[in-house]
Amino acid sequence: MDVYHTIVKNTSLNGMPKWFKITALLLFLGVVSLIFATYLLLITKGPDMVIRFGY
Fold it and tell me: What does R_g of the chain's alpha carbons equal in angstroms?
């Protein structure tokens, strides 16, 4: 909980309503977990993927 209080105190979330703080942190955690899942997918299935760039 100390990390949570430090994050809230040192960002623009300081002074915001509790529901806004929770929503912002959940959105951030959702984006981070999506990036992590994509990274794991790329590591596990990357050599077998055919990735084409362009139109």
Answer: 17
Check: pTM over 0.70? Answer yes or no. Answer: no
Cβ within 8 Å of residue 43, ≥6 positions away: none
Q: Is the dihedral of CA 10, 15, 18, 23 positive or negative?
A: negative
pLDDT tens by residue, 16-48: 888 988 898 899 999 999 999 999 988 888 888
Q: Give the C-alpha separation, 5 to 38, whole Å.
A: 29
Query: Binning pLDDT at 50, 70 and 90, where does residue 1 land?
Result: low
